[in-house]
Each structure stands twice: as structure tokens, then as C-alpha cells.
């Protein structure tokens, strides 16, 4: 059965600001890929995808994780691929980390979905809509609250 996990971001957590959130996304991508998962980071648009890719290049060389944007790099070489709405992963990926605010029609192609419930009210409502879509698609749902981490 497919699973969807929503990480609930609390206003007092480090992930509540853009820098902390970006670091947390990188942490999750590295964590899942180190366990052998083929991870797809689904961004809102090309600009966000390029920003996330740049963040991977800015980390300490000892912690570097191979990654590529969709259409760049070798087709089977990295466990982390970064794309955006309207493009497809280069090849089969098991897990998607969704950073886009809507359009979860991609989700049925992945066994595992990671999504987020931000602090801001409009973004929270969009997350609720995605939650409903995953539930209707038959995903087993769970939530994890992020606090003071």
C-alpha cells in the first residue's frame, strides 16, 4: 500500500523559515537516499528546483550527496533527482518529497509521498486539499509534528 506522510511545521520550529525548511528538505532527501530510496524532489517551478539544486552544492564537501535536475546528468546515476510541475522524473523513483503547493496528480506514481503542512494559513489550506487527494487515491496517511528541532 502507498504511504503519504505530512510533516506539520510549527511556528516555533527551525523549519518555519525558508532557510530552516530548505535544510530540513535536504536532510530528508539525504536520509531517504542513504537508505537506498530513489528520491524525487517535486518543486513548484523551475526556479525553485534550481534553488534547491544550488543548496545541495553549498553544503560541506564531506556531506555532499549526488543529485541532478531532471534532464541533466546521467539517467541512472543519482539517488536524488530534482524536478518541478510539468516535468517527469528520468526513471522510476519510489519516493517523492513534494514542495509544490498543489497539483498532486503525480502522486499515484510513487509508493511513498512526503509532504508538508506549513504555518501560513493559505498554505495550510492547500496542504489539507492535498491530504484529501492522497486519501481519495488510497494512500495510508500519517502526520508527524515538527517542533523545536
How would you describe what is shown here?
There is one protein chain. The chain is of the alpha/beta class. It has a single domain (3-146), classed as Rossmann fold, CATH 3.40.50.10110. 31% of the residues lie in helices and 25% in strands. It is built from three helices and seven strands; from the N terminus they run βαβαββββαβ. It has helices at 18-34, 46-58, 121-136, and strands spanning 3-9, 39-43, 67-69, 80-84, 95-98, 112-117, 140-146. It has a seven-stranded parallel β-sheet with strand order 3-4-2-5-6-1-7, with helices on both faces. The radius of gyration is 14 Å and the shape is globular. The termini are far apart. The mean pLDDT is 87.
* Fraction in helix: 25-40%
β-sheet strand percentage? 15-25%
Class by alpha and beta content = alpha/beta
**Named CATH topology:** Rossmann fold
Q: Count of helical segments?
A: 3
GO molecular function, one term: DNA-directed DNA polymerase activity
Protein name: DNA polymerase III subunit chi
InterPro entries: DNA_pol3_chi, PolIII_chi_sf
Which helices and strands occur, and which strands form pairs?
Elements: E1 3-9, H1 18-34, E2 39-43, H2 46-58, E3 67-69, E4 80-84, E5 95-98, E6 112-117, H3 121-136, E7 140-146
Parallel strand pairs: 1-6, 1-7, 2-4, 2-5, 3-4, 5-6
Amino acid at each position: 500500500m502507498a504511504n503519504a506522510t505530512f510533516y506539520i511545521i510549527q511556528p516555533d520550529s527551525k523549519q518555519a523559515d525558508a532557510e530552516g525548511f530548505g535544510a530540513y528538505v535536504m536532510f530528508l532527501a539525504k536520509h531517504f537516499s542513504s537508505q537506498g530510496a530513489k528520491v524525487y524532489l517535486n518543486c513548484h517551478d523551475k526556479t525553485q528546483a534550481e534553488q534547491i539544486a544550488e543548496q545541495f552544492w553549498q553544503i560541506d564537501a564531506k556531506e555532499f550527496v549526488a543529485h541532478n535536475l531532471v534532464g541533466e546528468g546521467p539517467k541512472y546515476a543519482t539517488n536524488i533527482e530534482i524536478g518541478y510541475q510539468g516535468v517527469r522524473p528520468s526513471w522510476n523513483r519510489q519516493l517523492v518529497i513534494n514542495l509544490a503547493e498543489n497539483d498532486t496528480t503525480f502522486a499515484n506514481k510513487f509508493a511513498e509521498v512526503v509532504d508538508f503542512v506549513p504555518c501560513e494559513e493559505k498554505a495550510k489550506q492547500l496542504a489539507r486539499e492535498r491530504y484529501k487527494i492522497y486519501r481519495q487515491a488510497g494512500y495510508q496517511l500519517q502526520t508527524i509534528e515538527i517542533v523545536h528541532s
